[in-house]
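Tutorial handout. Part one gives the primary structure; part two gives the three-dimensional structure as C-alpha cells.
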Amino acid sequence: MTHKEDRAADQVTGLLLAAGGGRRLGGRPKALLEHRGRPLVEHAVEVLRTAGCARVHVVLGAAADTVRERARLEGCVLVPNPAWEQGMGTSLRAGLGSLAGTGARAALVLLVDQPGIGPQAVTRVLAAYEDESSLVCAAYDGARGHPVLFGADHWADIAATATGDRGARAYLKEHEEAIRLVECGDVARPFDIDTPQDLAHLE
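Part two.
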C-alpha cells in the first residue's frame, strides 16, 4: 500500500446509505434484497472494505431491526435514520452527522441498491482523495454518478441542502467546477434496483 493509499484509508470513512424501503418493490427493504447469497447491505459493506475503507458507517431505516438481525455488519457503525421515509437526503444528513468527532476527513458515499458498482470503482474514487476540500464523483461515459467522495469542508452545506430524494444533487450542481470526475464505466455498471424489473440484475 502506498503512503497515499494508507492516508486515504485512515482519513476517509465509507458511508453506506441503506435505509430505503423499496416502495416500488412492494415495500421490500433494499438492504435485505438477496445478491450472491446474502443481503445487499452485507455485499455493499464488503465492497467498501475491499476498496480500502477501514471504517464504514451504515445508515439504516426501513426494517432496521430486521437488517441488524439478518445481516452481518460486525465492525460497522450503524446509524439510525428514523426519518428515512422522507427520502435519501435524510439518510445522507444522518450519515454525515454520524462522522462528527470521528476524525474522518472525507466520506465516500455508496448506495446499497447499486450492486453493479464494485471495489474497482470505489478504489478509483478513493484514490482521488486529497484533503478536506476534495469533491470526487465516479463518472460513466462522462456522466456523474456514484460513488461520491465529500471532503469534510463540504459536509455542513451538503447537509443543509439535502432534501427528499435529491441527496447532494443540488450541492454538486452548484459546485460542478470543483468536482473531480473519475471515469468508472469500464469497471462498473451504475444501475439502481428500484422496480421489480430491476431485480433481474441481482445474482
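Part three, for discussion. The mean pLDDT is 93. The two ends are 31 Å apart (CA to CA).
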